């Protein structure tokens, strides 16, 4: 990456970080989790027994792939399959493989802010599903969507998987989905993966696994600040602290200070009280009624709710 871009990006990272740490209560943005180490740790999280979300959505795709294709293209119409934040495509491959073997007419358009992630995905798909027509697009979701809705007469089907919607509060989710609604055309559809409210112990375990992978993922933010912003966080005097509120469905990850201390970030000093927290992430869980409410508020109609056999997770198809 050219040096100037790197400096600009670090400037945004620095500004966001200082702004969050000067807020009350302190926050850090989850969007900075995903550097190289963060990507690796997230891959490990998806393989943990306690992190049930990935398996649940995978099994929904395995058992419902035919119904999903029929929902997207009831009479064999061609379509764009647009994925927001495609990542490694582990679950999406189940659908892609099936759609290709059914000779569905579609172009797979993964969108990601990371060109690195897109390159890896395109490469692995070229090997596993060589017949697939794929057009990766790097950039902001809405810019790409806007371009697609205006340039193509094809139906657009948007995938937003893995409970990524959970990183928004209800209001933020409503804003995000309303913006999608404004950008798309009639007949377009959305498939959105949502983690359901369930036994709080089960949810909390998914964000506080026994191997400490999620703790390392969360605390990696402090490493990143140390390395990229000249911080001096001592990781020993902070602790991963997730907590779940069954009323709001919000599982929040935080990092807690274990003593009164001061931390230097570049030229700035940030003071922490013992037991003070920095909220790093929200992973919101929904009931099916709340999914219905969200869809209606954003101008969508819920067509299908596809649940896994344990009732942990739902892939909701909207039009
Ligand atoms: C990728 C945002 C869906 O919130 O469950 C996993 C990220 N954080 N473990 C989630 C995550 C801690 C994950 N999402």
UniProtKB/TrEMBL annotation:
Keyword Methyltransferase: yes
Sorted UniProt keywords: Methyltransferase, Transferase
Domain Histidine-specific methyltransferase SAM-dependent intervals: 15-318
Pfam family, one: Methyltransf_33
InterPro entries to which the protein is assigned, alphabetical: EgtD, EgtD_Methyltrsf_superfamily, MeTrfase_dom, MeTrfase_EgtD-like, SAM-dependent_MTases_sf
Matching PANTHER family: ERGOTHIONEINE BIOSYNTHESIS PROTEIN 1
GO biological process: methylation
Transmembrane segments: none
Annotated protein name in UniProt: Dimethylhistidine N-methyltransferase
Gene Ontology MF terms: methyltransferase activity
